[in-house]
Amino acid sequence: MSERSERSERSERSEQLLRAEKLDAADELAGVRSRFVLDDVVYLDGNSLGALPAHVPGRVEDVVRRQWGELRIRSWEESGWWTAPERIGDLIAPLVGAAAGQIVVGDSTSVNVFKALVAAVRMADSGRDEIVVDATTFPTDGYIADSAARMTGCTLRPVAPADVPGVLGDRTAAVLLNHVDYRTGRLHDLPSLTSAIRAAGAVSVWDLCHSAGALPVGLDEHGVDLAVGCTYKYLNGGPGSPAYLYVRRELQDRFDSPLPGWNSHAEPFGMRSAYEPAAGAPRGRVGTPDILSMLALEAALEVWEGVSVESVRAKSLALTDFFLECVTSYVPEGRVESLTPSTHAERGSQVALRCDDAGDVMKRLVERGVVGDFRAPDVLRFGFTPLYVGFGDVERAARVLGETVAGAA
Fold this sequence. Notes:
alpha/beta, 7-stranded mixed beta sheet, 12 helices, 13 strands
């Protein structure tokens, strides 16, 4: 490298570092970072597993030692265990734009996708025998959609989200879509797609795993029928924390779960052989709640106190914009290609970069203290959780990426 090139590179780095410092100084969410357990690693994998909120270990210890260890069975009532699925659902509700009483927490995302999709077909009008599914969906959603179609006698129709309005018709029973594409970070148009599904007389089912806690969703505002999501990504609930199911209030009396359990019975302790579903959101429950992980999630959600989803979205876009700018500055031309839309209206809270040797590159990034993840065959994913990621983190990540791919060239 020539002396002139070195001077130019140092100048460019100084400029980006200065910008990062100014952006961090003006960040209204900067103080929220102290609510998490973090180190000097740049953690950009919160779209797979969120960081640990600092107060959660103490809360879990209380659940284990006092609520379970001392109160034992009494905790179902005295510690509020029995009502936890709905109570925690009401904590998630404002983060996805829902009024209280429409979300129940429990089971995995996969189980909730199954419940929602089969129930959607059962709610559809007679003669509707087709399920439309996002052709680019997370694999499990596709597997479950295929199984649900076979179980309900429906035909499965995989379609790119943008093409959904053109295939809707009198036969469409339900449509299962992802709000954000897990590979590319593309944000799909939930309002217009939901409107098209409703106009066609079908039932909408949205997977919010990569959007809840990162951007406004507006479930009630946009008339979404059913939605599911995990809580261990941007909601920071911990590994394997329970998922949630949203059932629009107007549909709750018609929601016919394919997994009726004693916990969703109108009289759970009546132990009657005949099933009668509970009223409201509780009919989305199945079996005994997983209390330890559920109450860890409840504690984790306290980090949202005083934080608006709108401010999170604004910072998310600023972080991803800055990252893409830094990548352009630091990464040798032609080494990576962004798969994430540049348009804000089409971008979630992650950036996906195509890179020929992505697997090896990500290993080297992790070794140097920048943690993202790799998706086969050639995608580097970087998730930006605005609650604890700063602009200095972004600059460092892009700089280390540039050095890594330049060294591998």
